[in-house]
Amino acid sequence: MSPVLSISAATKTYKTGHTALHAIDLAVEKGEIFALLGPNGAGKTTLISIICGLVSLTSGRITVAGHDIVTGYRAARGMIGLVPQEISLDIFATVENTVQFSRGLFGKTPAPAYIEQLLRDLSLWEKRGARVNELSGGMKRRVMIAKALSHEPDILFLDEPTAGVDVNLRRDMWDLVRRLRQKGVTVILTTHYLEEAEEMADRVGVIDRGRLVLVEETAALMRKMGKRRLSITMQQKLTEIPPALAAWPLRLEADGERLVYEFDANAPETGMPHLLRELAAAGIDYRDLETGRSSLEDIFVGLVENGV
Questions:
Q1: C-alpha span between 238 and 252 (Å, rounded)
Q2: Which CDD domains does this chain map to (predicted)?
């Protein structure tokens, strides 16, 4: 089956000469939740804006369910819902009219039952008659999501959807994303909350300085690149790594109160028992041990810092 979104050698160079995207290749399947990660200025929003027809493509080809975004713009755009970072609404329109009007812009016939369920899913039904300027910031964000879903798109783009919003909206958002996925909707999101990507996304793409440096299944990425961490809380503060432990990849944290050892999560031998014996042999006492696994955030930061 063909991917619902296909990107081939997509580039973007502005008149200033700045190249924001370098030959991006990506295929996203129907019903997939795909997280696009990258630091500020990496090209995430530029790529989304090109797919949605807000920014022109310099070269390459992008199709949405087989429709070219340039030659078949109307068909391609009709399959896309976009929740941008910035809130842009008619502040004097009511919530319900805003969503209904957006549906009409895409040539869709009225669907009162669908709109009602959508507003209920986003906890907006009780506010349906309120004007946008009467709403809180979180409620306005909910209206933006409802607008993006008003025409029942096949692909939903969420550009930093939960940045600066309350916990309730974040929870409602991800509940809605799960339901959309069950209906076959493809969700592509950018986020700075990497724990969300780790929990929600089927695959992760990392973009840095306009280049897609990695695309991997989330679980496989965690297995491949995840590390385990042993935190040793010292009985007394250390000012430096003891010479007897110089051969170990250790670092001091918490102003010398904690000694940290990281190792390959997939390695058959962790080295922990040997390290603890060497601590005892060096006369170094500790009062607590804690182990954990590295997060997607740790992996992401390492990838970007190392320029992978």
A1: 8
A2: ABC_DR_subfamily_A (cd03230)
Domain carrying residue 19 = 5-79+153-222
| 104-118, 140-154, 232-246: range with lowest mean pLDDT | 232-246
| Percentage of residues in the chain having pLDDT higher than 90 | 46
> Per the domain annotation, does 57 fall within a domain?
yes
Per-residue pLDDT band for 8 (boundaries 50, 70, 90) equals very high
Query: Which residues make Cβ contacts (< 8 Å) with residue 212, sequence separation at least 6?
Result: 24, 25, 26, 205, 206
Q: Would residue 270 count as lying in a domain? A: yes
Q: Write out pLDDT tens, residues 122-171.
A: 889 999 999 999 998 888 989 999 999 999 999 999 988 766 667 777 78
Q: Is 105 helix (H, G, I), strand (E, B) or coil?
A: helix
Which two tokens mark 243? 């010479």
How far is it, in rounded angstroms, from Cα 33 to Cα 190?
A: 11
Q: 86 lies in a domain? A: no
Quick check: 295 pLDDT over 60? no
Count of structural domains within the chain: 3
Residue 84 lies in a domain: no
What secondary structure does DSSP assign to 119-160, as a single string? Answer: HHHTT-GGGTTSBGGGS-HHHHHHHHHHHHHTT--SEEEEES
Q: Are residues 300 and 186 in the same domain?
A: no
At 188, which amino acid appears? I
Q: Which of 222, 242, 265 is the last residue of a domain?
A: 222
Residues 71 and 117 reside in one and the same domain: no
Cβ–Cβ under 8 Å, residues 292 and 261: no
User: What is this structure's pTM?
Assistant: 0.75
**Residue 190 token pair:** 């950018």
Q: Are 213 and 272 contained in the same domain?
A: no
